[in-house]
Design brief:
Elements (H helix, E strand, L loop, with lengths): L2 H15 L17 E5 L5 H10 L6 H10 L9 E5 L5 H10 L5 E4 L6 H12 L3 H9 L1 H6 L17 E4 L5 H15 L2 H10 L3 H14 L6 H14 L6 H8 L35 H8 L8 E4 L5 E4 L2 H14 L12
Antiparallel strand pairs: 1-2, 3-4, 5-6
Helix pairs in contact: 1-3, 2-3, 5-6, 6-8, 10-13, 11-13
Length: 341
């Protein structure tokens, strides 16, 4: 028998010993121990095997290619994104790629969404009941398992905004855990030491960063908006952040008027000094970084222009002049408000 003929014979023994395996990564939203692998539409078996080998899902690509061909996978390969272990069993790979079992769906959470808005999105796109998602996000056992018990009343602020590859119709607890776990995985060791120098807790950081996230439409402004709020806190000034007023209402406001500033809520930073009780949305990496490392500037005021960019000022007189400039830019609607000082 030639060595070339021996390969299929040896694989025949392997095939006989393998059942229709199922990957542990198919049972829940992808865990950090699982890797998402995308098989492009129209990919050949050889290309698919190369991808699996590159992602360390298989360690013997030549042998697996023989195995897959003997089982007829070459003509029935299902494209899409899967979650696999590193390494994965051949039977589980065959079962998934031949039937499309365990295919993942993309679930994108933009920066700045509230927990209630993510619940709406999860219900619409994944079929996760809104109430179940909110209950899971506030469940003490879930928070305890994620290290948030006693530090946060809910997962608000920790549902990391990114694109997830999840199984269709995941459980609410599974989805919440996956999102908070992603936040924890994005946490950088140097951020902990930076918190110590600021004398902040992580909850305070996430709360602060959520305000920056909600305030900024023009990304380069993030470290400067952060600086304004840092400077205000250092001077004992109220933050006077419109996004906190909007959060106090429990729904999005198209525009904040003077009457809205009187809403009685601990989240209203026009009435209460310091940070609000907790985050008001989900901040992304950029806002967390800006909150930790504000620009070294003396500004304590800003006003938004119609294009979303801000004009920053160090004195109230400069701020009034900036407000007048913005007023002239606007062709309709009420003039921007001048915060108290």
């Amino acid at each position: 028998m030639t060595p070339r003929a021996a390969i299929p014979l040896a694989l025949g023994v392997v095939i006989a010993a393998c059942g229709a395996g199922r990957s542990p990564c198919e049972t829940a939203a992808p865990h950090p121990a699982c890797v998402a692998v995308t098989i492009p539409r129209g990919a050949s078996l050889a290309a698919a095997v190369d991808t699996l080998a590159a992602d360390r899902v298989i360690g013997h690509p030549v042998l697996f290619r023989w195995y897959a061909r003997l089982r007829g996978l070459g003509g029935s390969l299902k494209s899409g994104t899967y979650a696999f272990q590193q390494p994965e069993s051949w039977s589980a790979l065959y079962g998934a790629l031949s039937t499309g079992r365990g295919l993942l769906v993309r679930f994108t959470v933009p920066e700045g969404l509230r927990m209630t808005e993510i619940a709406d999105l999860a219900q619409k796109e994944l079929g996760v009941p809104r109430d179940s998602f909110l209950a899971a996000a506030g469940d003490s056992s879930v928070l305890s398992g994620l290290g948030l018990a006693g530090r946060a009343p809910s997962a608000e602020g920790y549902l990391f905004p990114t694109t997830y590859n999840v199984h269709p119709h995941p459980g609410a607890r599974t989805l919440v855990r996956a999102m908070v776990q992603t936040f924890l995985l994005h946490w950088r060791p140097e951020w902990t030491s930076r918190l110590d120098s600021l004398h902040w807790t992580r909850q305070q950081l996430v709360t602060f960063a959520s305000i920056v996230e909600a305030e900024v439409r023009y990304p380069p402004d993030r470290p400067f908006v952060s600086a304004v709020y840092h400077n205000r806190l250092a001077r004992g000034m109220k933050l006077e952040a419109d996004p906190t007023v909007i959060y106090a209402y429990g729904h999005r406001l198209k525009r904040v008027f003077e009457r809205n500033l009187l809403v009685r809520s601990p989240y209203n930073t026009y009435l209460h000094a310091g940070l609000p009780p907790g985050p008001i949305c989900q901040p992304g990496d950029s806002s967390l970084t800006a909150a930790l490392y504000p620009a070294p500037v003396p500004w304590i005021y800003f006003v938004a222009q119609p294009d979303g960019k801000h004009i920053f000022s160090a004195t109230f007189a400069e701020h009034e002049a900036a407000v007048n400039r913005v007023r002239r830019m606007r062709t309709a609607g009420p003039a921007p408000r001048v915060p108290a000082h």
